């Protein structure tokens, strides 16, 4: 303990910041404060560094030790010096009732009035043109979020789950204030007017995570278009975004285009990483989003439940726009009779051929069928693995096979039901994955081949042992899934 006490305050602060940032759990910093007065003095300002309500304020579970969002705002009101300490905010549940939906405790009306007055002083234009102050007086998280975002100008990460319905009153639709505020900021970022000498809210935002609360529907991609104009945004992670398959906005409750939407940037966005989880975008929606980026490095597409047909040609060309910058691509595509990616021309499919053009690609996750090539189009038995479709820069390869994944999981749970003809249907793909030459020739930088999505490791199977040993001899790790049995 004596050696720790001899550490200078500046170094201790950096250590405490590291502990706080390690897992975004500020309860650790509360424990540090209990050590002694010196530790308490250094650690106390860091208690607001990360705020999250994920998993703690649902009707099922509420922890009284957690600081609710309105109390978090009140803390920032009372201690303005803490506002610049806030680095990340995660709002999983934007509560808009008077405490009826959730067990959160509202702060006293007089404290809400203080927050409303602060909003009027901090955001006079927004306060005079919207119901911002009224919403704060009612304890609405939407209004309080706007105030917190306006204060925390060093914020680098925002994780926001959009509720399924807008706030409605008789005869009048009310704005989703946090999205409206986002657009107003974006308009200032792209304006030619003289820039403010002080940093604007969310000007330093690096990571935006954007989810929709209702898994049965989608949040329109137009809602996030202002984020693409933020000057320092590098990473965008979304869940359930769509564009009504290219149609209008009329199905979105309380939505008019002027509320939230902006034109997508044209190869000017600072965005470098895009993660799309279960999107329902049209071809034009995918293309516009990728075309917005100036220097895209990471693209991760996870298809799960979306139904319809998409153009693989469009996706290949959209990726091709970033051939000189893409370093990671992952395409986990659901490809069956209900969800298909098909080329614009029956003569050629550009998507399997586009990977070799991505000259800086180091990590790829792609469907196995993109690596299979039939030597004789009329003979399915001539289908062979073609690693030549991959770029020489590749270091890590993950292979997806949705059918084999389903068979693997089900056969481990119900082995008697998945024998014979069902397994034989995919035996050629399974065999090609195991006997294919992953480590020879062009792919000299290849380090790992991950096929755990579709095949389980079984040391008793000679074929599996042989391919793993051969890969190891050539400096490549062949990764298979762990059996649940």
From TrEMBL:
<protein>
    <recommendedName>
        <fullName>F-box domain-containing protein</fullName>
    </recommendedName>
</protein>
<feature type="domain" description="F-box">
    <location>
        <begin position="1"/>
        <end position="54"/>
    </location>
</feature>
<dbReference type="InterPro" id="IPR036047">
    <property type="entry name" value="F-box-like_dom_sf"/>
</dbReference>
<dbReference type="InterPro" id="IPR001810">
    <property type="entry name" value="F-box_dom"/>
</dbReference>
<dbReference type="InterPro" id="IPR032675">
    <property type="entry name" value="LRR_dom_sf"/>
</dbReference>
């Amino acid at each position: 303990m004596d050696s720790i006490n001899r550490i200078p305050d500046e170094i201790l602060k950096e250590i405490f910041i590291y502990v706080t940032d390690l897992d975004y759990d500020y309860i650790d910093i509360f424990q540090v404060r209990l050590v002694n007065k010196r530790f308490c003095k250094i650690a106390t300002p860091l208690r607001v560094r990360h705020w999250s309500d994920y998993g703690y304020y649902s009707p099922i579970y509420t922890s009284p030790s957690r600081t609710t969002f309105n109390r978090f705002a009140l803390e920032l009101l009372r201690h303005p010096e803490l506002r610049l300490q806030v680095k990340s905010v995660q709002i999983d549940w934007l509560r808009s009732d008077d405490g009826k939906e959730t067990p959160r405790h509202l702060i006293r009306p007089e404290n809400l009035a203080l927050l409303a007055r602060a909003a009027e002083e901090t955001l006079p234009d927004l306060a005079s043109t919207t119901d911002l102050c009224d919403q704060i007086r009612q304890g609405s998280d939407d209004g309080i979020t706007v105030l917190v975002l306006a204060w925390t100008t060093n914020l680098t990460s925002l994780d926001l789950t959009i509720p399924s319905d807008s706030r409605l009153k008789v005869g009048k639709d009310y704005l989703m204030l946090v999205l409206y505020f986002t657009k107003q900021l974006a308009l200032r970022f792209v304006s030619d007017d003289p820039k403010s000498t002080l940093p604007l809210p969310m000007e330093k935002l690096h990571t935006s995570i954007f989810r929709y609360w209702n898994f049965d529907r989608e949040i329109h991609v137009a809602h996030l278009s202002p984020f693409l104009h933020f000057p320092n945004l590098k990473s965008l992670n979304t869940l359930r975004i769509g564009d009504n398959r290219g149609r209008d906005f009329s199905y979105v409750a309380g939505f008019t285009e002027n509320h939230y939407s902006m034109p997508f940037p044209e190869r000017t966005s600072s965005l470098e990483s895009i993660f799309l989880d279960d999107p329902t975008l049209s071809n034009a929606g995918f293309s516009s989003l990728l075309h917005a980026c100036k220097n895209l490095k990471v693209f991760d597409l996870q298809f799960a439940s979306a139904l319809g047909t998409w153009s693989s040609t469009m996706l290949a060309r959209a990726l091709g726009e970033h051939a000189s910058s893409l370093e990671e691509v992952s395409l986990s595509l659901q490809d069956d009779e209900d969800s298909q990616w098909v080329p614009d021309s029956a003569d050629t499919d550009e998507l399997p051929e586009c990977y070799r053009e991505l000259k800086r690609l180091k990590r790829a996750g792609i469907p196995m069928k993109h690596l299979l090539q039939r030597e004789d189009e009329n003979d399915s038995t001539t289908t062979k693995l073609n690693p030549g479709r991959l770029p020489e820069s590749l270091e890590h390869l993950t292979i997806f096979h949705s059918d084999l994944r389903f068979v693997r999981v089900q056969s481990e749970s119900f082995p008697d039901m998945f024998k014979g003809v069902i397994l034989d249907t995919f035996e050629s793909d399974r065999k090609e994955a195991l006997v294919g030459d992953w480590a020879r020739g062009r792919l000299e930088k290849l380090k790992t081949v991950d096929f755990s999505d579709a095949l389980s490791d079984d040391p008793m199977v000679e074929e599996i042992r042989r391919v793993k040993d051969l890969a190891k001899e050539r400096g490549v790790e062949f990764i298979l899934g762990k059996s649940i049995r």
